[in-house]
Write a structure and sequence with these properties.
By secondary structure, the protein is mainly beta. The protein has one helix and ten strands, in the order ββββββββββα. Strands 3, 4, 5, 6, 7, 8, 9 and 10 form an eight-stranded antiparallel beta sheet that branches. The protein has a two-stranded antiparallel ribbon with strand order 1-2. Strand 1 and strand 2 form a beta hairpin. The chain is globular, with a radius of gyration of 16 Å. Bound molecules: manganese (II) ion. Manganese (II) ion binds next to loops.
């Protein structure tokens, strides 16, 4: 039996896509703040032929995503607003249109500017490992990096 053709256009209005639920980023937890998630493409039940998931995350002004790492990479394009990304041992400013590659096992965190959201598309393999949060030893090692010393949140 062939799969039904799921080719489609999903219309956007103000960074909300028709028929796509806006969800909390993850289960409520203290290690992130003010992040929403929309999975645009790649759910196993709707798009089984697609090996990746395309998600849109939006971090509210002053918020941040989890500081984490994992084996799967991220391909990210900033669509809205601006902020910073913690990437390995540095923190880089990012603005709309910028593209970010997060390699395997690299610590990363997305931080919105105090006065602007940070909205971005993120592509991941649909089948992937779970994120790992920093241990106390990991945090101590990250804090030993001068660029990060006073910047670690969450
Ligand atoms: Mn991640």
């Amino acid at each position: 039996m062939t799969e039904p053709d799921r080719s489609r256009v999903i219309r956007a209005t103000d960074f909300r896509w028709d028929g796509v639920a806006v969800r909390e980023y993850k289960d409520p937890a203290p290690h992130y703040r003010d992040v929403s998630r929309q999975t645009l493409l790649g759910d196993a039940d709707t798009d089984p032929a697609l090996g990746v998931q395309l998600r849109y995350f939006e971090v509210a002004p002053g918020g941040h995503s989890t500081l984490e790492r994992h084996a799967h990479p991220h391909a990210v394009v900033v669509l809205r607003g601006r902020g910073e990304v913690l990437l390995g041992g540095c923190i880089e400013p990012v603005d709309s249109g910028d593209c970010v590659y997060v390699g395997p096992h690299t610590w990363h965190q997305f931080l919105a500017a105090p006065d602007a959201p940070l909205g971005f598309l993120c592509v991941v393999d649909r089948v992937r490992d779970r994120p790992v949060l920093p241990s106390a030893d990991d945090l101590a090692a990250l804090r030993a990096i001068p660029a990060l010393r006073d910047r670690l949140r969450g």
